[in-house]
Amino acid sequence: MPKGIEIRDAHFPGRAPIDAYGNGGFRFADMSHRGSLLCLPSGVHGWDLTEGEALTAESLARVLDEAGAIEVLLVGTGKEIRPLPQAVKAVLKARGIASDPMSTGAAVRTYNVMLAESRAVAAALIAV
């Protein structure tokens, strides 16, 4: 039996508003996380994407896995608004998900409002 520290993917099994963002991470549910996040119906997951990295359908695989429970995906693209690649928009649309790119700060605020309204929302938030 192996001993030592077990490294697991960061995951909070619930929906939680984002309390704060900045300094390369986020605070939610009395916890903090360094790096980017996917806020999905299945919970809040660590996301291995950094500002400036290309957004691909593969990087959103976890979002696509939960497509039936998501109507809107807010994409926090970092400090600046960056358009989503056409291929990514097409894959999301084919799964019935509307996508809305915006700065990460705007995406956090919009996500919190839509979550409070019990909307079928998810967020892909690149850390700033």
TrEMBL record:
<protein>
    <submittedName>
        <fullName>Membrane protein</fullName>
    </submittedName>
</protein>
<dbReference type="InterPro" id="IPR036748">
    <property type="entry name" value="MTH938-like_sf"/>
</dbReference>
<dbReference type="Pfam" id="PF04430">
    <property type="entry name" value="DUF498"/>
</dbReference>
<dbReference type="InterPro" id="IPR007523">
    <property type="entry name" value="NDUFAF3/AAMDC"/>
</dbReference>
